[in-house]
Amino acid sequence: MLSAVRGFYLSHVRLLTAIELCLIVFLSLAFIWGYASVSNPFGYLFGIVFSIGAVILASVILRKDTFRSVGIRFDNIWQSAREAGLAFFIFTAVVVVIAFAKGASFNLDRLKHIPTYLLRGFGQELFCLGYLYLRFYTLFGERRLAAVFSTAAVFGSFHLPDPVLVAVTFGMGSLFAFLFSRYRNIIVIGILHGLVALLLAMALRPVGLFGNIKVGPRTLSEISNVLHAEWKPGEEIRLGSHEIISYNVGEEWKERIHEMPGGYCSLTAEGRGKALRKFLESKDKVFCLITRKDYEELVPPELGAGLFILAKGYILRRRFEFCEILRILTKGEIGSYVVQEIYLISNYPSSSPQV
């Protein structure tokens, strides 16, 4: 049975590969854009991930892909590393020049997250190169450059609607795919991807570049509506969790929603708790956007008794930390980790009858 299915697949491989790619790209974009409009976002995302995994698994079986064929190999690692190393050296020089021109002070605290960046880079390249590139290579009759730019275009589309981020990811995706096309080594390209992301976080994010990443839908529309009804000029709105950005609420709030002062996101949990309490104990009316997890961990019950949850929403986690993933897997909390519930809280009750 399997051999008959495989024979049919291989005899129509380009047509079926085109259908497969359309389905995978559609499901991937649905994962990014669709969860905000459903009542059960975790169930929706689980269904999307399951469908993507099923399609990829079937494709791998029918094509008889191996670790070596998808680029997980060690026999040519030094040849591949030479070119990747040269690309990283040039990229580093450009980033350092930009950072110094902007007066950046490098955030060396990010170095402790190296395993997360490397794992994330390897995972993305396993999908983009070990799967997408090889399917485009088949689709275009083994024309390498067509596969390179098609893979990069899809990778860039995953970062809509931010035009700068789309352009950067298309450029870096083209470089990664081109290097992969020469030696087909995902290990090296995954490490290169992780190091590039780490360098951007250390050098350019502190000066405001690549920090407020606008990817996917503006998911907190209900919170935006409540703010329109409740907020008055002069009242402060702060972000109590680093996972939230003003874009989630809406572009019109960009100049009104601010991060907590004093390097809030780099503080320990105790330090963030103190800063948050100081802000929420203000005599003036203030608003805070905070994840449910941080609200429960950082806001003491006696303070919480005097606060008001005005609205709720959901966002998809943008960054995954390696150690946190291991912890939540052991506790079975994967749903609340991937899809985070967001609270809009205030130290004053609602002044609008509709809230």
Please provide a written account of the structure.
With 355 residues, the protein is an alpha/beta fold. It has 3 domains: 1-64; 69-216, no CATH class; 221-346, D-Maltodextrin-Binding Protein, domain 2. 60% of the residues lie in helices and 8% in strands. It contains 16 helices and 5 strands. It has a 5-stranded mixed β-sheet. β1, α11 (246-249) and β2 (257-259) form a beta-alpha-beta unit. The longest helix has 26 residues, at 114-139. It is globular, with a radius of gyration of 23 Å. The mean pLDDT is 88.
Summarize the helices and strands and which ones pair or pack.
Elements: H1 2-11, H2 13-33, H3 41-63, H4 67-70, H5 77-101, H6 114-139, H7 144-157, H8 163-183, H9 186-203, H10 221-230, E1 236-239, H11 246-249, E2 257-259, H12 269-280, E3 286-291, H13 292-298, H14 301-304, E4 308-316, H15 322-331, H16 334-338, E5 339-346
Parallel strand pairs: 1-2, 1-3
Antiparallel strand pairs: 3-5, 4-5
